[in-house]
Specification:
This protein has a domain of 50 residues. A two-stranded antiparallel sheet has the order 1-2. The protein is built from two helices and two strands, in the order E-E-H-H. The longest helix has 59 residues. Strand 1 and strand 2 form a beta hairpin.
Protein backbone atom coordinates (compact mmCIF):
# COMPACT_ATOMS: atom_id res chain seq x y z
CA UNK A 1 0.00 0.00 0.00
CA UNK A 2 1.18 3.47 -0.82
CA UNK A 3 1.14 6.27 1.76
CA UNK A 4 -1.08 9.14 0.64
CA UNK A 5 -2.28 12.39 2.16
CA UNK A 6 -5.88 13.05 3.21
CA UNK A 7 -7.60 15.65 1.04
CA UNK A 8 -9.25 17.24 4.10
CA UNK A 9 -6.87 17.16 7.03
CA UNK A 10 -3.58 16.46 5.21
CA UNK A 11 -2.65 13.48 7.39
CA UNK A 12 -0.68 10.74 5.69
CA UNK A 13 -2.32 7.33 5.70
CA UNK A 14 -2.02 4.01 3.91
CA UNK A 15 -5.24 2.41 2.75
CA UNK A 16 -6.48 1.43 -0.68
CA UNK A 17 -4.67 2.95 -3.61
CA UNK A 18 -7.74 4.96 -4.66
CA UNK A 19 -8.59 6.29 -1.15
CA UNK A 20 -8.84 10.07 -0.86
CA UNK A 21 -9.76 10.55 2.80
CA UNK A 22 -8.14 9.07 5.90
CA UNK A 23 -11.43 8.39 7.74
CA UNK A 24 -15.21 8.51 7.48
CA UNK A 25 -15.17 11.76 9.45
CA UNK A 26 -12.97 13.46 6.84
CA UNK A 27 -15.14 12.08 4.04
CA UNK A 28 -18.25 13.51 5.76
CA UNK A 29 -16.52 16.86 6.35
CA UNK A 30 -15.61 17.05 2.65
CA UNK A 31 -19.19 16.21 1.64
CA UNK A 32 -20.60 18.94 3.86
CA UNK A 33 -18.10 21.47 2.48
CA UNK A 34 -19.09 20.58 -1.12
CA UNK A 35 -22.77 20.89 -0.25
CA UNK A 36 -22.20 24.28 1.41
CA UNK A 37 -20.36 25.55 -1.68
CA UNK A 38 -23.19 24.38 -3.97
CA UNK A 39 -25.84 26.02 -1.80
CA UNK A 40 -23.83 29.24 -1.64
CA UNK A 41 -23.45 29.30 -5.42
CA UNK A 42 -27.20 28.74 -5.89
CA UNK A 43 -28.04 31.50 -3.41
CA UNK A 44 -25.75 33.91 -5.27
CA UNK A 45 -27.42 33.05 -8.57
CA UNK A 46 -30.85 33.58 -7.08
CA UNK A 47 -29.81 36.91 -5.59
CA UNK A 48 -28.60 38.08 -9.01
CA UNK A 49 -31.92 37.12 -10.57
CA UNK A 50 -34.03 39.16 -8.19
CA UNK A 51 -37.47 39.58 -9.73
CA UNK A 52 -39.42 42.82 -9.28
CA UNK A 53 -42.40 42.58 -6.89
CA UNK A 54 -45.19 42.92 -9.53
CA UNK A 55 -43.69 40.09 -11.56
CA UNK A 56 -43.49 37.92 -8.44
CA UNK A 57 -47.19 38.45 -7.80
CA UNK A 58 -48.02 37.61 -11.41
CA UNK A 59 -45.83 34.50 -11.30
CA UNK A 60 -47.45 33.46 -8.02
CA UNK A 61 -50.89 33.87 -9.56
CA UNK A 62 -49.91 31.81 -12.59
CA UNK A 63 -48.51 29.14 -10.33
CA UNK A 64 -51.68 29.06 -8.22
CA UNK A 65 -53.83 28.72 -11.33
CA UNK A 66 -51.61 25.93 -12.65
CA UNK A 67 -51.82 24.05 -9.36
CA UNK A 68 -55.58 24.50 -9.20
CA UNK A 69 -55.91 23.23 -12.78
CA UNK A 70 -53.73 20.20 -12.00
CA UNK A 71 -55.83 19.41 -8.93
CA UNK A 72 -59.04 19.72 -10.93
CA UNK A 73 -57.73 17.33 -13.60
CA UNK A 74 -56.57 14.89 -10.93
CA UNK A 75 -60.03 14.91 -9.31
CA UNK A 76 -61.65 14.33 -12.70
CA UNK A 77 -59.35 11.36 -13.34
CA UNK A 78 -60.10 9.90 -9.92
CA UNK A 79 -63.83 10.22 -10.57
CA UNK A 80 -63.43 8.60 -13.99
CA UNK A 81 -61.49 5.70 -12.48
CA UNK A 82 -64.21 5.22 -9.86
CA UNK A 83 -66.83 5.18 -12.59
CA UNK A 84 -64.85 2.62 -14.58
CA UNK A 85 -64.43 0.46 -11.46
CA UNK A 86 -68.18 0.59 -10.84
CA UNK A 87 -68.91 -0.39 -14.45
CA UNK A 88 -66.40 -3.23 -14.25
CA UNK A 89 -68.03 -4.56 -11.10
CA UNK A 90 -71.45 -4.44 -12.77
CA UNK A 91 -70.14 -6.31 -15.82
CA UNK A 92 -68.47 -8.93 -13.65
CA UNK A 93 -71.72 -9.50 -11.74
CA UNK A 94 -73.63 -9.73 -15.03
CA UNK A 95 -71.11 -12.22 -16.44
CA UNK A 96 -71.25 -14.33 -13.28
CA UNK A 97 -75.06 -14.42 -13.42
CA UNK A 98 -75.01 -15.28 -17.12
CA UNK A 99 -72.46 -18.06 -16.53
CA UNK A 100 -74.62 -19.45 -13.73
CA UNK A 101 -77.67 -19.49 -15.98
CA UNK A 102 -75.70 -21.17 -18.76
CA UNK A 103 -74.43 -23.81 -16.36
CA UNK A 104 -77.96 -24.50 -15.12
CA UNK A 105 -79.31 -24.80 -18.65
CA UNK A 106 -76.40 -26.96 -19.75
CA UNK A 107 -76.88 -29.26 -16.77
CA UNK A 108 -80.60 -29.56 -17.51
CA UNK A 109 -79.91 -30.32 -21.15
CA UNK A 110 -77.37 -33.02 -20.32
CA UNK A 111 -79.23 -34.70 -17.48
CA UNK A 112 -82.83 -33.85 -18.18
CA UNK A 113 -83.16 -32.86 -14.53
CA UNK A 114 -85.96 -30.83 -13.00
CA UNK A 115 -86.19 -27.08 -13.37
CA UNK A 116 -84.42 -25.07 -10.69
CA UNK A 117 -81.77 -27.61 -9.81
CA UNK A 118 -78.25 -26.31 -10.03
CA UNK A 119 -75.38 -28.34 -11.43
CA UNK A 120 -73.52 -30.16 -8.66
CA UNK A 121 -70.08 -29.12 -9.84
CA UNK A 122 -70.71 -25.39 -9.47
CA UNK A 123 -71.55 -25.45 -5.78
CA UNK A 124 -74.67 -23.33 -6.28
Amino acid sequence: MVATFCAVCGADFSKRCDAVYCSAACRQRAHRARSARRIGALQERLAKRAVPQPLRREAAGLLQRAVADSLRRAHERVERSRELRRLSEERLRYCAAARQQCDVHLHRARTGSAVGKAPPWRGI
